[in-house]
Each structure stands twice: as C-alpha cells, then as structure tokens.
C-alpha cells in the first residue's frame, strides 16, 4: 500500500511539473522540451507578422520591398501612373492613386513639386499632353479624364476595388477610424471622400487651388490639405463634410503633417525652400530653411523629428533629406541621398527613414540614430510616393 501511494505521489509531481513547463513560457534556460519549440514557433510567427514592407508608387507599378533585407520582393503592375501609396491604419489595406496612361508622369510629378514662375496661373497645363482624353473614365472639369483610387489586400497584394475619383488624383489618406479614404484631385480643386464599407465616393469637398499632399488628425475629424496652386492649406471638417477655412502658410505648399498632440501643423513650401510650422491655436507661421525644392514631409510617431525630402528640379535635382528637431525648430542634420528625393516615411519604431529618389529609381534607407544611409534599393521608374506596413 505504501509503495502504491509513493508511485501515485511521484505521478502527481510529474504531471504538475509538466503543466508548469507548459504554462510558464519556458523561462528556464537550456530546456529542450516540446513546449519550448511551440513557444519559439509562436515567436517566429509574431516576428513574421511584425515584418515591415515598404511600397513605392511608380510609373506603371507599385514596388514592394522587404523592410528586413531591404530587397525588392514584388512588382505589382498597374495601368497608369501611380502617384501615391498609403497603408491603412489597421495595416490591412494598401491604397494608391492612379493617373490614367503612362506618358507624362515624370512631367506631372516634377512640375507638381518644383515651382516655376507663373506656376500658380498655369499649374497642370503641361499634364494634359500625357494625361488627356482617351484614357478612360469621365472627363474632369478641366477636360482631362478622371483618375482612380485602387485598394489592395495588404496580405495578398490582390486588388480589392478600383474607384473612379476626380481629375489628376494626387494623394490618398485613410482616416484613423477606417471609415473613409480621402483622395485629393489636383485638377478639380476638390477632395473625394470614399466610404470604406462600400468603396463608393460619397462626397466631393471643394478645396483651394491644386490640392496635393495632406494628413488627417488622429481623431479622424480634420484633414489639412496643401494647395499647391496657392499659398494655403485647406482645413477640411470630416464631420460636416466641408472646408472650414484656409490657413495662409507660404509659397507652393506641397504636403502637410500634424504633430501627435494635434497642436502644430507643418507644410513643405516648395518655392521657398522651407518648412512652415504653424501653431494651430494662433495660426502663427514659423519657417525653417531646408534644401532645394522640398517635396514630402513626415513626422516620426513620437513627434520629435520631421524629415523633409528635397527634390529640386529635373534640371538641377536635389539629393538630400533635412532632419528637423520640432522642439528647437532647427535642422539638425542634412543627409545625402539619391537624386530627386521625393517621398519619405519612417519605420513604425522610428529606427529607419525611407526616401524615394525619383531620378535615380532608388530608395535610400537611413538609420535614424546616426543619420547614415545603410542601404540603397533599386525600384521602378520615377518612384515618388512611399508607405510602410
């Protein structure tokens, strides 16, 4: 009897130890039990799910880059010129703006982001040759065919929906609550509001002249749209679906950014070679000199730094990124990249900065802590917009 009890006790102890090994996440080093393999498998799966992918908008394609190896892994062919790409806040959807036809995209992208004398009166006149009639879609109010917003499954890269928007679509941005996607129509002077439940345009909201790059506040209530054809940013109320007002910021604003606390707006001023920093409470504008022909700007997630891609012009391309400390409002680094720096984004953990170089057909990868370029990735023709998953 005593012997039986001893065996039973040993059996219970064995079961208890086995149970602890399963539920303690294998914190004991050196074990080679099956549960540890399972834990490692879960970790690998988690790391795979967190793996970054970078997408670039190009002439006739979207290139997908592995953010771990900095290697191109896929080319998604698109009919037309892709001007901008954007990953949705939940990471499930890739949005893109497409101008029908492939001719003239270089002229379009360069003229939009390099100010010339008389640009405000004639903005977009040179686009009609490359994006005129005969490419499909209805004609916009300037006689050009309408463009499209494309939505892809970010897991499979398969097209979900193609939505007709206005003439010469520029940028696409999702609201944080995943209710809408907005597309600026550069030649129609308005923004299309797309309902993400139905993938239908439910509203067109008037803006200033030549709406281009923009950002939406974290509460999904306000969009700040840079109007390239004038010196303003349109403040769009996404609850009332109307333009509330315009803020005068400076000559030829290209894109905007909003600080995480919602207190400051920034905008690249292409014709002034500067970044405008606007106090949203007072609308006071402070300007910081950057490189030649600034195009896109991006604020890292903690709001500490803003990065400006300096594109220059096709004749005199710029090749730098300006790093601005938003507290001191000073350029703390000028980083040499490729020719025609245009689109820019930071990694989700702010460790890396990615910039498209339009005239070199490359993406530069910058290490944020020491401002060094650690990789150059070959992509497609005239890469401009960029986003990260």
Describe this structure as you would to a colleague.
By secondary structure, this protein is mainly β. The chain has one domain (54-388): 7 Propeller (Methylamine Dehydrogenase, Chain H). 14% of the residues lie in helices and 48% in strands. The chain has helices at 2-23, 34-50, 105-112, 119-122, 128-131, and strands at 53-66, 71-87, 93-99, 146-153, 159-167, 169-174, 180-185, 190-195, 200-206, 211-216, 222-227, 232-237, 242-248, 253-258, 264-269, 274-279, 285-289, 294-299, 305-312, 317-325, 330-336, 341-346, 352-357, 362-367, 372-378, 386-388. The strands form six sheets. It has a six-stranded antiparallel sheet, covered by helices on one side. It has a four-stranded antiparallel sheet with strand order 6-7-8-9, with no helix packed on it. A hairpin with a 5-residue loop joins strand 16 (274-279) and strand 17. The longest helix is centred in the first third of the chain and has 22 residues, at 2-23. The chain is globular. Residues 1-49 and 103-143 have low confidence and may be disordered.
Ranges with pLDDT <50 over ≥5 residues?
1-49, 103-143
Radius of gyration, in angstroms, nearest whole number: 24 Å
Backbone structural class: mainly beta
The CATH architecture comes to 7 Propeller
Provide the β-strand percentage band: over 45%
Assigned CATH superfamily = YVTN repeat-like/Quinoprotein amine dehydrogenase
Give the SSE layout:
Layout: H1 2-23, H2 34-50, E1 53-66, E2 71-87, E3 93-99, H3 105-112, H4 119-122, H5 128-131, E4 146-153, E5 159-167, E6 169-174, E7 180-185, E8 190-195, E9 200-206, E10 211-216, E11 222-227, E12 232-237, E13 242-248, E14 253-258, E15 264-269, E16 274-279, E17 285-289, E18 294-299, E19 305-312, E20 317-325, E21 330-336, E22 341-346, E23 352-357, E24 362-367, E25 372-378, E26 386-388
Antiparallel strand pairs: 1-2, 1-26, 2-3, 3-4, 4-5, 6-7, 7-8, 8-9, 10-11, 11-12, 12-13, 14-15, 15-16, 16-17, 18-19, 19-20, 20-21, 22-23, 23-24, 24-25
């Amino acid at each position: 009897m005593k012997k039986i009890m001893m065996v039973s006790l040993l059996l219970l102890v064995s079961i208890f130890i086995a149970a602890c090994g399963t539920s303690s996440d294998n914190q004991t080093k050196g074990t080679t039990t099956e549960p540890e393999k399972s834990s490692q498998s879960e970790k690998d799966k988690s790391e795979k799910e967190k793996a970054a992918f970078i997408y670039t908008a190009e002439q006739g394609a979207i290139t997908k880059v592995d953010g771990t190896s900095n290697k191109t892994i896929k080319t998604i062919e698109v009919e037309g010129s892709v001007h901008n790409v954007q990953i949705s806040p939940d990471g499930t959807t890739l949005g893109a703006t497409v101008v029908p036809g492939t001719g003239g995209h270089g002229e379009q992208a360069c003229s939009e982001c390099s100010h010339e004398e008389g640009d405000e009166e004639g903005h977009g006149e040179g686009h009609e040759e490359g994006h005129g009639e005969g490419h499909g879609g209805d004609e916009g109010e300037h006689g050009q065919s309408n463009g499209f917003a494309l939505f892809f499954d970010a897991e499979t890269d398969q097209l979900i929906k193609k939505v007709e928007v206005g003439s010469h679509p520029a940028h696409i941005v999702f609201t944080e609550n995943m209710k809408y996607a907005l597309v600026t129509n550069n030649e129609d002077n308005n923004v299309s509001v797309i309902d993400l439940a139905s993938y239908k345009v439910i509203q067109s909201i008037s803006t200033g002249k030549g709406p281009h790059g923009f950002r939406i506040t974290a509460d999904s209530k306000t969009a700040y749209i840079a109007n390239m054809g004038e010196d303003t940013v349109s403040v769009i109320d996404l609850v009332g679906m109307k333009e509330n007002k315009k803020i005068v910021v400076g000559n030829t604003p290209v894109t905007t950014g909003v600080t995480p606390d919602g207190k400051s707006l920034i905008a690249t001023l292409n014709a002034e070679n500067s970044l405008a920093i606007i106090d949203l409470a007072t609308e006071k504008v402070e300007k910081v000199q950057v490189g030649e022909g600034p195009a896109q700007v991006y604020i890292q997630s903690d709001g500490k730094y803003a990065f400006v891609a300096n594109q220059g012009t096709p004749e005199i391309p710029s090749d730098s990124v300006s790093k601005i400390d938003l507290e001191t409002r000073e350029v703390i680094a000028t980083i040499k990249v490729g020719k025609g720096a245009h689109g820019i984004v930071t990694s989700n953990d702010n460790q890396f900065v990615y910039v498209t170089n339009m005239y070199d057909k490359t993406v530069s990868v910058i290490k944020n802590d020491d401002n060094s370029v650690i990789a150059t990735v070959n992509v497609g023709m005239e890469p401009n917009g960029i986003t990260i998953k």
